[in-house]
């Protein structure tokens, strides 16, 4: 590999990590980190919080659908710029919000950014990186979520919520400009026939697992810090917990190794088991520091790793139409993210957040039954 190619890979890796870190770590998951402050400022009850959480994920799903329609016509660069613009504007709007409608508008706009950014960056890597390095870069880019989460947690310790969101918006603008500059030479997309898939029996557990993953992820990211804040000693526990999730989430880089050593079936059971236990232990002792730490250490790497596992599993189920197949998987995941906060938020309003988390843990544990029937569907 030449020096120029090495620099391209390095710049793309940094730009991709930053884009995903901003879109997911700040714009999509920042709501859950600062939820106690937002509830106090705007007087939000738990059912309303659930509806807002589902609304942000609905925006993500809408953007993801538009990406599928526009990517072949526009190429990835305009979509990645759109992701950054939505993140910047949405985060800034939250920072200056003086009423609940303005807050919700900012959160919904920011929430779309992750839908705009995810799939297009995969196209960028396939276009600009040599085939022997593509998988390495593609595996690295999603870990921007872990970095973004860790940075957000540290920032929450240092400044109040409004200045934090101003800094989020500033970072989003810088990342957008960097990506716009880096991707300025991308070739125009070539028109291709629309890809269609024909789901088989092997796809059913894959879609079910994706839906469940969407449910547990959206519930945990939305409500975990709020539940901790009600019982844990000190205001710093929530941000420290969030930072630990992000740092531990870097363990998701080992997903490829786990699939090689354990296989898809056992990796599936291990990861969904870890997610279920991480959610349950937090529900049983939300004010106990050991339980909070254990939950973060289990949830962080398992959550990041499941995304990589679903990618590999989808490729095995849809080898002839990998892009279309994975789009269907992500769509099922998106449906889960919409259903989770609203449904469990309504349940929590009558039974409490710990009970809602235990129900979420049960659904997650039951997903182990949806592991693939064989290693190669």
UniProtKB/TrEMBL annotation:
Residue stretches spanning the membrane: 12-31, 51-72, 79-97, 103-125, 137-158, 164-183, 204-224, 236-256, 268-285, 291-313, 325-347, 353-370
Alphabetized Pfam families for the sequence: MFS_4
InterPro entries documented for this protein: MFS_4 (IPR010645), MFS_dom (IPR020846), MFS_trans_sf (IPR036259)
Domain Major facilitator superfamily (MFS) profile: 11-377
SUPFAM superfamilies: MFS general substrate transporter
Gene3D superfamilies listed in its UniProt record: MFS general substrate transporter like domains (1.20.1250.20)
Keywords, sorted A to Z: Membrane, Transmembrane, Transmembrane helix
Main subcellular location: membrane
Protein's cellular compartments: Cell membrane
PROSITE patterns in the record: MFS
Membrane topology: Multi-pass membrane protein
Official protein name in the record: YbfB/YjiJ family MFS transporter
Organism: Actinophytocola glycyrrhizae
